Amino acid sequence: MGKTYIRVDDRLIHGQTIVAWCPTLSIKEIIAIDDENAKNPILKSIMTMGVPSTYKTHIVTTEEAKEILSKETNCNRLVIVKFPSQLSAIEEEIADAEFVILGNIAKRDDTIHKVSGATGIFYLSDNDVSIIDDVVLKGTEVCFQQLPSTTKTSWASFKKSI
Fold first, then answer.
1. Number of structural domains, the chain?
2. Averaged over 39-52, what is the pLDDT?
């Protein structure tokens, strides 16, 4: 049975996803969840333009993602969401995920926590923190990491800093 990895990255699918994360995690299927992009054929086309055909790629709504994720697979999957808030909507489907990797998360109106260092800059709201705390309480490892080759900062280390 394949493994599921989760990445929170507001850029969804981009170069680092394809050249760094997918090979490192032996990914064969990419599932980008974003209701807006999924409904726009032009955005979907742009996002998948640089994805080699060796990857089964989906840019889907949350509901479509639930359907895809509910089916077993023999390959490793990378599920990508823009913001931590989206994890709540798919929590049942990602309950067995290997880990959650927090990637690029841009500043938004409600963000008050800034995490910066060797792994990049990440902005989180109190709601984001609460959602990720729930993920951790359910036994999933969460870390901040821009690339597989960069330093990993654990969720526990971040929590000590706030």
1. 1
2. 94
